[in-house]
Amino acid sequence: MASEGEDVYATLLLSDSYLPGALVLAHSLRDAGTTKKLAVLITADTVSPAAITQLQSTYDYIIPVERIVNEAPANLFLMNRGDLHSTFTKVNLWKQLQFRKIIYMDADTVAIRAPDELFSLPHAFSAAPDIGWPDIFNTGLMVLTPNMGDYYALLAMAQRGISFDGADQGLLNMHFKNAFNRLSFTYNVTPSAHYQYLPAYRHFQSSISVVHFIGHDKPWTEGRDAHKGGTPYDESVGRWWAVYDRHFKEPSTDSSVQETSTLVQYYTKGEFHPVMPVVSSSSYPTYQPPESRSETYQAVHPTVGDQNVIFHATPASDTEITHATAEQPRHERTEVPSHVETAYVPPTLGVPEVKPEIQYSIWDASRAPPPADSRPEASNFPATHYQMSSDPEPFKAPERYPDPPKNMWYEVPKTPTYQKPTPIFPWEKDAPKPTRVFPEDELDVTEPPSSELATEPGPPEMEPEPPVTPVTSTIPVIPSDPWQSYSRGNAWDDIPEIGRYVGNLQKPRKGSVQIVHGQGSSSVDVSDLGGRKRILRLTDFPTELERPSLPVTPAPIRRPNFWGGERNEEGELPAAEGVPSQEEWDPAVQLEQLARRQSDVLAQKFGEDSGHEIPTRSLPYGSEGVVSPSYEAKAPTRGSGSAASEPAPGTVIPPPSYKGPSPVFDKDESFLSHSTPEPGTEEELDVLQT
Ligand SMILES: O=c1ccn([C@@H]2O[C@H](COP(=O)(O)OP(=O)(O)O[C@H]3O[C@H](CO)[C@@H](O)[C@H](O)[C@H]3O)[C@@H](O)[C@H]2O)c(=O)[nH]1
Ligand SMILES: [Mn+2]
């Protein structure tokens, strides 16, 4: 753990592919004699354990941080650097509060001299100008004071993808704007293959502290022979390789370095020469190397057919490392016995141990076809077998789980956001505070509750309106027989404000409200004002005594009849013209009259002497001599019936003709010619019955 307020050099490793850079940087600082500690921020999801192990040999602090990915990386492609999708992770530097000051250096920088003096700067943030746009700073070297204010501001920007170049340099320049302490360019010299200002370089060359290999190509991805010239860039690349060779070039004089350098070589173009442990010695045919090459050794990757090997560094990295081993100087090795077969151990699975007694393959794929009897390429891939657990013990949860992350942050709102809604109803203003009491808490209460609430309300007290007293207790005592003392009142019946409110609502309809006064009545006329207490018992119904008796048959509702006629004043239907009144209508007499009339007509038509005798016929069985009890023979008031033609009661009626009505009947002959209307609707029948 870092001591309080320590100064530290820090770099960032987002992928194994920058491992050579990170290690060369650390060694360059150490070699330059810095007294400060070295820290490396790593993203554990994209850096392999083998790389971390390698870092531990050089760095004092390995600090895992959350990877911050730019979710809107469009601007990155403007500079063709999609591989910089996660450089926002640099933001995590600002929350390393365990350090007083940090000199951050990209993993693609190399120190010519250690710039320890930068720790003494009073400024919170310092950086050197960028060669592409000198008004802004380059973020390959920054002197910063960790603080959470900048951290949260930068994090918020990063999460929104705010950066003009899609990476950290655009983001940090947008945040700090011109508020940065501008460092000399000598602290972050960024030469390129196209560097043109040679006189300046020569003039300031001796004061250069740090060189930074900006751009897609890095010294370790181009190989040691790529820049052998004398340009400023070539010279800078040479400085990098000098540090590399001091620590990682094989054969190393330092045995500890030799044991752990394989992974670095793997990510350094031209430096990887895998060792292949023996897997079998006799069961496979052997390969005899050509005589001419028997004294040299060239290790090759056995899984590919030629010597240009491309490895994907990590699943999360899109950086490719190319090894052109065919161009590399061959390493002298002991001659490999001809009977030895080899196997490949991928360096990412661990750093293979190089033991002097291990013997090597001698087939050079660049010069000869594969041995005729060799095994398939992938036959020696390592295989791991996993077995299902046969442990019968049920799973037991551990006693405690790891603590939640400490760096989670949530600000509890200081003032509650809840606001009481504005009252709508009048009673809301003086509403009693709600309380919650359980019945068992109240069992020892002997005092009955508020009489107005718990007992049957008596006659209303016509008192001057008392001041509003809020209901103090809403907890009734549970009686032995709850039905006896059950109140039909409501709490709000006793609150005058509610009475007034409902009264106002009902004002326009006051006249039609049925208010029952009387003994035992609990209702009070809402119109009965005059300074009296107005109580409206909405839920109280009148007792049986109070209720007026209802008519057995309710009076029918009179409506316009279906003939469309108006009612007369009494609401009766208008009298039909020519229709005798009910009292005057005796159906038996009418039948007789009809029959007789018909006979008369027939007699006139056919003559007395026609020879046709109209037979007499009795009335249908049971209807002889039937006279309506209410019948009183009267002269019809209207109609065509003649009084003279009416027979006296009891007269024998001649039998009717069954020829029925026919054209022989003249138009105006006096017999019943109107048809009986359809029976009326129920309403009309109601009217008729009364
Ligand atoms: O696959 C990767 C990519 C980047 N890095 C780290 O991120 C840094 C920035 O990437 P780099 O390739 O060095 O970017 P530059 O080519 O230097 O590009 C410029 O633009 C970058 C994005 O704005 C800035 O981070 C640099 O400081 C600036 O010099 C590296 O040094 C590493 O520390 C990795 O570890 N792995
Ligand atoms: Mn860089």
TrEMBL record:
GO terms for molecular function: glycogenin glucosyltransferase activity; metal ion binding. It comes from Venustampulla echinocandica. Residues 606-615 have a biased composition (Basic and acidic residues). It is an enzyme of class 2 (transferase). This is glycogenin glucosyltransferase. The lineage of its organism: Eukaryota, Fungi, Dikarya, Ascomycota, Pezizomycotina. Belongs to the glycosyltransferase 8 family. Glycogenin subfamily. Its main location: cytoplasm. Keywords: Cytoplasm, Glycogen biosynthesis, Glycoprotein, Manganese, Metal-binding, Transferase. GO terms for biological process: glycogen biosynthetic process. It holds the Pfam family Glyco_transf_8.
